[in-house]
User: What shape does this take?
Amino acid sequence: TTLPTPEDPELPAAADPEEITYEVTTDPHEETVHAEDGTLLMTVSFQLPHLQAYADGTLIETPATPAQEEAMARVNTFNENFNQWRESGDTAQSMEDAKSLYQSFPDAFSNTSYCEEFTYMAYRTGSLISIAADYYSYLGGAHPNDVYFSWNFDLDSSTFLTIPELATDPQAFTLAVADMIEVQAGERFASEPEYEGLSISDIYWDNYRETIEKWGSDYAASFDADGLTVIFSAYELASYANGPQEFHFPYAALDSYWSDSGRAVLGLD
Assistant: This one.
């Protein structure tokens, strides 16, 4: 008797790979310091970037798959960087200084108080998250201060990069952008009446070219929807009276410098 050939069992359909997405949210820290009589001595407002990962739209809290574990490793690397920044500051010491000053000179806080503030803008391009931040402080003295920071985080490699690393020749790219900064600064000063008759060397510190050439490693450089922005905080290129020096370059002006891997990171392919 010929037996019927058994049919191959139907295998379950392969599950679609889960979609992992990321979002930069804000991790706020607010604090106030008062004297015993209620006088406000200091305010602290840190709005730090905080990365979160989602699997198919659901926030990953306890990773359940290898893809989720990899995503959380990226998240932890990103967030730990900003936790370290917060812990590295002297905010606690500034609070103690404010209390001590008030005990000796209470009139110093009659019209003002100490403050520290951190704000940021986040921009995503390709696999890169670019953070441009402003740390504002007034801790006594003649005037407040603004210090600008930047971080550029590649989700694919889970590393913080410097922007010249995205170029085929990082050194040549660094020098080319330094040239662009110098040209843009000269054009700006030539167009502003208060600088009439002055050259860059009259306005910037003597070592300004050396400082400009370190734009990609030591100073604030970040991306936004239009291109690359480089900011030197007050005192870094010139006196406080001249304020921060900001320069912007559209993506088109930089297009020929990116390496293939850099273009992939920036989503320019």
